[in-house]
């Protein structure tokens, strides 16, 4: 349910005191725990360090963010991955493909830096 228009958007008072009267370039990172505060137009250009429960995540406020809450841009949960046999097989195939492409790239660089032209390219 949204907040009443009569009340207006919620912005933490302490946070607004830190923003009002300062320029974005000179303010640096403003650390805050007020994840529920809505982003107002006065906050444009500022960088906020929004706490996610463990650390402060830097959030640079842009025009598209106005009206959203600060907490939306600082995720609290970190997705690791889905487990299982199928996932491990996929990761192994991906790793093997990366190794093969790295070997192919190193072979190409050795053949061009050796001074001799490769046989296949001179036949053209």
UniProtKB/TrEMBL annotation:
Region (Disordered), start-end ranges: 79-124
GO molecular function, one term: structural constituent of ribosome
Any single GO BP term: translation
Keywords: Ribonucleoprotein, Ribosomal protein, RNA-binding, rRNA-binding
Superkingdom in the source lineage: Bacteria
Recorded GO CC terms: cytoplasm; small ribosomal subunit
Composition bias, Low complexity: 98-111
Chain's role: Protein S19 forms a complex with S13 that binds strongly to the 16S ribosomal RNA.
Listed name of the protein: Small ribosomal subunit protein uS19
UniProt source species: Candidatus Kaiserbacteria bacterium CG08_land_8_20_14_0_20_50_21
């Amino acid at each position: 349910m949204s907040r009443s228009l009569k009340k207006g958007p919620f912005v933490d008072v302490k946070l607004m005191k830190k923003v009002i009267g300062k320029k974005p370039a000179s303010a640096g990172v403003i650390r805050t725990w007020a994840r529920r505060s809505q982003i107002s137009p006065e906050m444009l250009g500022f960088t906020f360090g929004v706490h996610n429960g463990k650390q402060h995540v830097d959030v640079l406020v842009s025009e598209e963010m106005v009206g959203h809450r600060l907490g939306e841009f600082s995720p609290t949960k970190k997705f690791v991955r889905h487990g299982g046999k199928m996932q491990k097989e996929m990761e192994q195939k991906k790793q093997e493909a990366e190794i093969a492409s790295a070997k192919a790239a190193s072979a190409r660089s050795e053949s061009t830096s050796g001074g001799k032209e490769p046989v296949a390219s001179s036949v053209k």
